[in-house]
C-alpha cells in the first residue's frame, strides 16, 4: 500500500513536470517565432536603408557632375579668346544712351537685391540634393492639398517623439499631411509618430539645426515621414502650418 501511494505520488509529480516543460517549450517557440519576425523586419529595414543610400549617392554623383560641368563652362567663358571677342564687340558697338536718373533704391530694396543671389551657390552637394527633394515634396504636398481639400484630419492629436529630440505636436495642413518643427542632433536618430518608427542619419554639419517634419498619414497605422533642414525650404514651406 505504501509503495502504491509513493508510485501514485511519483506519477502525479511526473505529470506536473511534463506539463511545466510543455508550457516552457510553448513559450520558447513563441519567442523563437517572434525573433524570426523581428529578424525579417530588420532585414527589410536594412534593405530599405541600403536602397536609400544608393539613391542619395546617385543624386550626389549627378549633382557633382553638374557642378563640374558648370565650372568647365564658366572657365571656358573666361578664356582670353572670349575676352578679346567681347572687347572687339564692345568697341564696334555704338555707345548706349545713358539711362535717365532714377530714384535711389530704398534700404529694403537693396537688401532684397543682395539676398536675391542664389543661395544654392553656398550649399554643399548634400544640401543641394536635399533642397531639390524638399522642393519636389513641397510641390506634391501643395497639389495633394488642392486635390483633397475636403478631407478631414485623421488624428486629433499627433506627436513627434524621439530619444534625442524634444516632443513636438504636429499640425494638420490639409489632405492627409501634418507638419512639425524641432531642433535636432547629429548622428543616427529614431523618430516615432503614431507608434510608427523611422530611422534617419543626420549629418554632423546639421547638429543643433531646426528641422521641419512632414508626416503623411496613409492610414491610422501607417504613414510616411519626411524631414528637411528648415533653411533649405522655401519661405512658403517654412510658413505652412502656422497660418
Q: Please report the total strand number as a whole number.
A: 8
- Separation of the first and last Cα atoms: 90 Å
- Helix content bin: 40-55%
Q: Count the helices. How many?
A: 5
Order of helices and strands: HHHHEEEEEEEEH
Strand content: 15-25%
Q: Main sheet, how many strands, which sense, barrel?
A: 4 strands, antiparallel
Structural class: alpha+beta
Radius of gyration: 31 Å
Brief characterization of the structure:
The chain has helices at 2-77, 80-92, 107-115, 125-147, 235-239, and strands spanning 159-162, 168-169, 171-174, 177-183, 187-193, 196-202, 210-219, 222-229. It is an alpha+beta fold. The radius of gyration is 31 Å and the shape is elongated.
Describe this structure in words.
It is a single chain. The strands form two sheets. This protein has a four-stranded antiparallel sheet with strand order 2-1-5-6, with no helix packed on it. A four-stranded antiparallel sheet has the order 3-4-7-8, with helices on one face. Helices cover 52% and strands 20% of the residues. It contains five helices and eight strands. A hairpin with a 2-residue loop joins strand 7 and strand 8. With 243 residues, the protein is α+β, with helices and mostly antiparallel strands. It starts with a helix and ends with a helix.
Please give a handful of descriptors for the protein shown.
20% strand; four-stranded antiparallel β-sheet; single chain; alpha+beta; elongated; 5 helices; 243 residues
